[in-house]
Amino acid sequence: MLSLAALAGALAFCWPLIVVPSASLDGNTQSPFVFAALLPVLLGIVVSELSRGTIDVKSLAMLGVLSALGALARPLGAGTAGIEFVFVPLILGGRVFGPTFGFLLGSTTLFTSALLTGGVGPWLPYQLLAASFVGLGAGLLPRAKGWVEIAVLSCYAAVAGFAYGILVDLSFWPFNLGLGTEASYVAGAPILENLHRFAVFNLATSMGWNLGRAVTTIVTLVLIGRPLLRILRRAARRGSFEEVRRPVTATSTP
């Protein structure tokens, strides 16, 4: 179920590079369809995990708590120069509780934040999907311990900070930039040509925001990542959601 959701999310971002969009379809008109498709997928993931026994009521409560914390953390930087703290709970939550939890956490956190800050708009479904991919990727990182784990998470935060911005830009770039520029989307053009145009657009408009997002997340993880991981892992022992990602420890032989 999670794999299908991830594949559908990737197609929601990348389909203009594969097919020629209709002239009557723009970012504003397609967003409700993406949102309408996303909600049942999220519900299906929760129901699937409940039926498998890999999630319980306590895990759902933890999902709600982390979503609320992330929603409260997001306005702290107000997006100024890309300063966003919301990726810290997304990455740590996905790291501790696994990829499915991380995927759900990304969507619920951004949705809650949008309701609190009035950030509901045609961009929201794509922000939900992009944040879900951030949490999903954190849950798939290899095991590590101590400062090595923080280094792994920091490297991932750098990649995720740029990837999030790239995905969100890709969602509106084909429809909102206009025609006749070096960075404009050309319907029906080869994929590599449009990717080059998108790279120009992204570098010109979003590189500073993406860099600020990555740096903010890395600094926060280095400063408070280890104690937050201990708190989350302690709380995880009281519930069940997939396999808790504990750091690697040495095993003794009898």
Automatic annotation (TrEMBL):
Gene3D superfamilies: 1.10.1760.20. GO terms for molecular function: transmembrane transporter activity. Keywords: Membrane, Transmembrane, Transmembrane helix. The chain crosses the membrane at residues 33-51, 63-92, 123-141, 148-167, 211-229. The keyword Transferase does not apply. InterPro entries: ECF_substrate-spec_UCP037395, ECF_trnsprt_substrate-spec. The keyword Ribonucleoprotein does not apply. Pfam families: ECF_trnsprt (PF12822). This is ECF transporter S component. It comes from Tessaracoccus aquimaris.
